[in-house]
Amino acid sequence: MTTPHLPSLSMLDLVAVREGGTVADAIDIAVRTARHVESLGFQRYWLAEHHNMPGIASSATAVLVGHIAGATRTIRVGSGGIMLPNHAPLVVAEAFGTLATLYPGRIDLGLGRAPGTDGATMRALRRDRVETEDDFPRDVAELQQLLAPAQPGQRITAVPGAGTQVPIWLLGSSLFSAQLAAHMGLPYAFASHFAPRMLHAAIDIYRRLFRPSQALAKPYVVVGVPVVAAPTDDEAQYLASSTYQRVLGIVTGQRGLLKPPVQDYLAGLPPQHQAAVADFLAAGVVGGPQTVRQGFAALANATQADEFMLVSDVFDPQLRLRSLEIAAQACQ
User: Fold this and answer.
1) Prior bond to 81 cis, omega within 30?
2) Bond before 289 cis per omega within 30 degrees
């Protein structure tokens, strides 16, 4: 029996603030995690833009991208993603152009079109701007132009930015970004770490409609995967209760800090909450080495993904590093 080819591994970090910890602690843990996964051979380390959330410290995403890139040597570092409706394309081009100048060949620019926050905070970020469906494709195209070599007579130039050609990725949890990524010939990352329902439909549309571009000759798919690995299935389920608590907080609108694990947490929830957590984490892989290997193989077979983008919310930072090490070994 042949072993299926498993995708390469990368990591998405929300820079979780832990109960009893500080934002400074969360950023320090992110740096240690990035160095660890770099040593494990991970492809890239991405950070996600979220706002007004007490348990997530990655709101100033470009700043953290620079901090992580400066603390590592070879791993690609980027955004997963910058929520483009919150920013003028010129500002994004200048920020990531600066990063690409500081860390040549190591910066990725993943773009999303969700607000990454609640309605009141969205209005605070965007001021009086009202977003339409046409704005995101137009803004992506403008960013591409600003990061390309400057043309004679170009009225607005990103300095730094012009000519850096920072790789642009489109992120999404629906069919919209899949179609746009296909149309523009860009790599596509699906947010199945929190919204797995449309995963298969989205990557099918992306592959079927893909048009080669200067950026990319053939489709490239990244799949978000929540992962908690431990020496045994039982311990992994115990550690994953921190993730389950976080998810339930999101589902019920009671977001907070990342909490320590609780024994038999899922079993104590009412059936509707158990179902909500299971639906949110349908693409998740939780278990010991053999379970993780089987889970990765099944997901790879179902999606034919080029890359898995792991999300690992383990409360104890050392056990999180161990979890990622077990995940890396499962992919070898």
Assistant:
1) yes
2) no
Contact 159, 94 (CB under 8 A): yes
CA distances 264 to 38, 110, 211, 248, 278, Å, are 33, 37, 48, 15, 15
Beta-bridge partners for 18: 258
Q: In 10 A of CB 216, how many CB atoms? A: 19
**For 307-329, what is each residue's pLDDT tens digit?**
999 999 999 999 999 999 999 99
Q: Is 95 helix (H, G, I), strand (E, B) or coil?
A: helix
Q: Count Cβ atoms within 10 A of the Cβ of residue 58 and give its class: 0-12 exposed, 13-18 middle, 19 or more buried.
A: buried
Q: Tell me if 208 sits within 8 A of 175, measured CB to CB.
A: no
Q: Look up residue 321 and give its two tokens.
A: 């590093």
The amino acid that residue 145 corresponds to is Q
Report which residue type is found at 203. I
How far apart are alpha carbons 177 and 170 in whole angstroms?
Answer: 6
Closest by Cα among 234, 255, 242, 238 to 311: 242
- The count of other CB atoms within 10 Å of the CB of residue 332 is 8
**Residue found by looking up tokens 């908690």 in the block:** 228
Q: Bigger pLDDT: 120 or 183?
A: 183
